[in-house]
TrEMBL record:
PROSITE patterns, per the entry: HTH_TETR_2
Residues annotated to bind DNA: 32-51
UniProt keyword annotations, A-Z: DNA-binding
UniProt domain HTH tetR-type: residue ranges: 9-69
Protein name: TetR family transcriptional regulator
InterPro entries, per the entry: Homeodomain-like_sf, HTH-type_Tx_Regulator, HTH_TetR, Tet_transcr_reg_TetR-rel_C_sf
Superkingdom of the source species: Bacteria
Length: 204
C-alpha cells in the first residue's frame, strides 16, 4: 500500500529500514515479521497495513536499494560530458553504493537462487543497468567516439556484469584490491572495450 499521510509514509519507511536491519542480521529465511515490527517500534498488526508478507517488504527494500544504485541522471546532476569522466563518475558511484550495501547485495544474490520472483527482480535490475549504459554507448557511437561495430546493449551487459561481479568479489567475498586501483582498472577496461577515441589535450 502507498501511504496517503505523512505519518503513513514515516511508518512504511520505518518498516523498510527495520526490515533491512533484520534481514542483514538474521538472513532472509530466518527473518520474522514480528522482529521487523519490533525493530520499527510498531505493533505487529501495523505491518499488514503496508505489506502483505515478508516477501513484499523485501521487495520494497530491493526497489529502494536499486534506486540508490542506479544513480539516475548522472550527466544532469554533475554537468559532466566527457565520456571518460562519465565512466569514472558512474563506476565510482556504483562501487560506493555497492560497498555501502554489501551485506544486502550478498543477501539479494542468495535469495535470487531460491525465489523465482526475486530472480526476476535480479534480472530486471541487471537489465536496467544495461539499458542505461547502452544509451551512453549508443550516444558515443553516434558522436564518433566509440567503436560502431559493437552492439550497444550486449556491450553494456558485458561491461556492467564485469563491474558488478568485481564489486561482489571485493566487497562481499573480501578480495583485497585497493579501491582506487579497482576503479581505475575498471575504467580502463571500459575505455579499451569501447575503443574510445583518444582524449584531446590542450596544446601547451
Amino acid at each position: 500500500m502507498t501511504p496517503r499521510s505523512a505519518r503513513g509514509v514515516r511508518t512504511r519507511n520505518a518498516l523498510i529500514a527495520a526490515a533491512r536491519e533484520v534481514f542483514e542480521r538474521d538472513g532472509y529465511l530466518d527473518a520474522r515479521i514480528t522482529d521487523i515490527s519490533k525493530a520499527a517500534q510498531v505493533a505487529s498488526g501495523s505491518f499488514y497495513t503496508y505489506f502483505n508478507s515478508k516477501e513484499e517488504v523485501f521487495q520494497a527494500l530491493v526497489a529502494q536499494v536499486q534506486e540508490e544504485m542506479l544513480h539516475p541522471h548522472l550527466r544532469e546532476r554533475t554537468g559532466i560530458t566527457d565520456p571518460r569522466e562519465l565512466i569514472d563518475a558512474s563506476n565510482r558511484e556504483y562501487l560506493r553504493a555497492y560497498k555501502k550495501n554489501a551485506r544486502l547485495m550478498a543477501l539479494f544474490e542468495q535469495v535470487a537462487q531460491v525465489d523465482e520472483k526475486f530472480m526476476a527482480l535480479r534480472i530486471e535490475r541487471g537489465n536496467a543497468f544495461a539499458r542505461r549504459n547502452a544509451k551512453l554507448i549508443r550516444t558515443l557511437q553516434e558522436n564518433g567516439e566509440a567503436d560502431t561495430g559493437l552492439d550497444p546493449l550486449i556491450t553494456a551487459h558485458a561491461l556492467s556484469v564485469m563491474v558488478s561481479r568485481m564489486a561482489y568479489s571485493v566487497f562481499v567475498l573480501g578480495q583485497r584490491i585497493p579501491y582506487e586501483r579497482l576503479v581505475t582498472t575498471l575504467n580502463k577496461i571500459w575505455e579499451n572495450g569501447l575503443r574510445l577515441t583518444p582524449a584531446e589535450h590542450p596544446e601547451g
